[in-house]
Design a protein that fits this description.
Blueprint: H1 5-8, H2 11-21, H3 23-31, H4 33-52, H5 58-80, H6 89-97, H7 103-113, H8 119-148
Helix pairs in contact: 2-3, 2-6, 4-5, 4-8, 5-6, 5-8, 7-8
Length: 149
Amino acid sequence: MFSPALLLVLVPPVVGRLISGSFPLMYVWSRIYLLSSLLFLAFWFWVGTRFAGLDTGKWTSLALGNGLTVFFLVVCLIFTAGCTAYVPGPLWLWAQMYPLLAVPLSSRILSLFFKTITSTSVLVMAYGLMLTTFFAGFTMRRRHRLRRG
């Protein structure tokens, strides 16, 4: 049941960690952060299409593609709710790195509607953008496959 598409789920935390851990990469990213956010969401849309093409059921493919995203979202919510004793530090770090590339766009969107925004709202919005984009790509590919027969 292993598919190379499963490795695509690991791209966000690895790239996020590379960017946050390297000053030169952080410098470049800070110059093109909004463009990188849009490019990342286009990539995440494409990942959704890849998972729609798996030879598993619809719900299994969705769970495989979004499982890590939902897991890290729950970790963020638990941590920000004040239950820090239940979340180990490294897990919290990876939960922040996972949506890092979607953060610029989510903070820009939130700033259109609110004067002040919190890091929690930015993270939740970034996860929401990732889930929505993935689901859009997944749905588009599934519908396309159904029409073709």
